[in-house]
Specification:
Layout lengths: L1 H25 L8 H16 L7 H22 L9 H4 L2 H9 L15 H22 L8 H31 L16 H8 L2 H30 L14 H27 L6 H23 L7 H20 L1 H4 L3 H20 L1
């Protein structure tokens, strides 16, 4: 009976998602961009916000809140202005492509770009290795009473990276098989990050980076740049009435970067709310604001110091990873561990393993 109810619930969720995407493709795209289209997509975004509550397991709820409440909603908002993944020609070619880009956190490789010839071999090898390491991490949870809280957080960090990378590689293989397209990699060896800018901008969960750039960073940067031009002309109107010139000021980039990290913090707070079902403590938002502030300082220092001093990798990489780990231990993971959400997640893995062993017997 429970299995039948679960099947009906899953069927209803899938049907609701497909109806929302079909509505977006056949109706929303016919509406003029801007405010009218934003109003038109609000029902679908509202559906995405409610959707994670229709499942009971922590992992499924976390995945659905990330995929739909966050990524898919942002894609629809960007589509309201004809920007972002859904506005690209390949996605708009037919409903199948539009659904694939709407549902999955993927980035289609631009046509004409050449994938690495050894990428397939390295991908298979890396996935096999990461699957083994993830199994070791999950098995290590059996001895969690012997580990310190800081070591458990290290295991959680490894778990999060291995699991997300494996899932995204699987989605890439599925898209390549079913749709005949290549996807951009979503992780690029984050354990080799030389700086916060390198980690957040070029190596970690790049689908979020690619979503935030056109939806938050570029609009805020443009607004700050236009404000800078107006102030410049107002102050120096008599001397230089026409030429404003120069690079985008550092303060404008700093505001844009901080805006991205504030929004990222708020979205993580929402995901944590879905998973913990407790009110926000704002520690996760503080984690991202702290990283945003440090990243802007890093950018400013690089402009001044980088031409003269280059930090070697054997120093830069450990310092960067240590900073990320300490701040995650301090601010990112406490909202999860405080209410035992991590233990509930581990219990779900134990249940899955029990089901697998019972099936084999």
């Amino acid at each position: 009976m429970c299995a039948m109810e679960g099947f009906k619930s899953s069927f209803g969720i899938v049907g609701t998602i497909l109806c929302g995407i079909s509505y977006s493709y056949y109706v929303v795209l016919k509406i003029p961009r801007g405010l009218p289209r934003i109003i038109a997509v609000l029902p679908v975004i509202g559906m995405y916000i409610v959707l994670p509550w229709q499942v009971s397991t922590l992992h499924t709820r976390g995945i659905m809140s990330f995929m739909f409440m966050w990524i898919s909603s942002f894609k629809l908002l960007m589509l309201s202005f004809d920007v972002g993944p859904l506005a690209k020609p390949w996605a708009m070619l037919n409903l199948r492509n539009f659904m694939a880009v709407s549902i999955f956190p993927i980035e289609i490789r631009e046509f004409g770009s050449k994938p690495n010839s050894t990428g397939k071999f390295r991908t298979l090898r890396n996935v096999a290795l990461e699957a083994c390491l993830l199994s070791v991490v999950i098995y290590s949870y059996s001895f969690r009473n012997s580990f310190s809280p800081s070591f458990m957080v290290l295991l959680y960090c490894l778990h999060m990276y291995f699991a997300m990378d494996i899932v995204l590689v699987f989605l890439a293989a599925l898209a390549n098989t079913c749709l005949g397209v290549q996807l951009e990699p979503q992780f690029n060896k984050p354990y080799l990050s030389r700086s916060l800018q390198d980690f957040w901008g070029k190596r970690w969960n790049l689908i979020v980076t690619n979503i935030f750039r056109p939806s938050v960073y570029d609009p805020v940067l443009y607004f700050c740049w236009k404000t800078h031009i107006k102030l410049y002309r107002k102050i120096y109107e008599k001397n230089q009435p026409k030429e404003v010139g120069g690079d985008i000021p550092l303060w404008a980039r700093a505001v844009a970067v901080l805006s991205v990290f504030v929004v990222s913090g708020l979205m993580h707070e929402l995901i944590f709310y879905y998973m913990t079902e407790t009110k926000a403590s704002w520690e996760v938002t503080a984690f991202f604001i702290l990283h945003g502030l440090c990243l802007t300082i890093e950018i400013g220092l690089r402009r001044k110091v980088s031409p003269y001093i280059k930090v070697p990798n054997f120093i830069a990489i450990p310092v960067t990873l240590t900073f990320i780990y300490i701040t995650a231990l301090w601010l990112f993971f406490p909202p999860v561990t405080r209410y035992g959400t991590d233990l509930k997640a581990i219990a779900e893995y134990d249940t899955i393993l029990e089901l697998l062993f019972s099936t084999n017997q």
